[in-house]
Amino acid sequence: MSSYAVYNCVLAFSPLVRERYARRYLSSPVPLAQPNDVAYAVHGALITSVIYTRFYHRLRDCTEAEGQKTRPRIGSLLIL
After folding, report:
1. What is the reported pTM?
2. Cα Rg of the chain (Å, integer)
3. If you average pLDDT over residues 6-12, what whole number do you get?
4. With b meaning 16 or more CB within 10 Å and e meaning fewer, what string describes 49-62?
5. Cα gap 65→57, rounded to integer Å
6. Cα–Cα distance, 35 to 46 (Å, whole number)
7. CA dihedral over 39, 42, 44, 47, signed as positive or negative
8. pLDDT digits 0-9 by tens, 32-70
9. Where is pLDDT greater, at 10 or 51?
10. Of 11, 23, 41, 65, which sees the most CB atoms within 10 A?
């Protein structure tokens, strides 16, 4: 999601990118990035980063308790 946010923000706000877009696409010189596209992309990047920060530290410090084993099928599902 964050790369989508960067793409939309650059397409919407960068004068250099807008000028090159206009030169390349003569039939449609105004980029198609609308304010709602930028808002959706930034919103998605923020929500993704919040969700990721909620579980990342648990993944990094994950250890199995003594005598506890992860079943292979469940482990393979987690990897997918």
Report:
1. 0.60
2. 21
3. 91
4. eeeeeeeeeeeeee
5. 17
6. 16
7. negative
8. 888 999 999 999 999 988 888 877 666 666 665 565 565
9. 10
10. 41
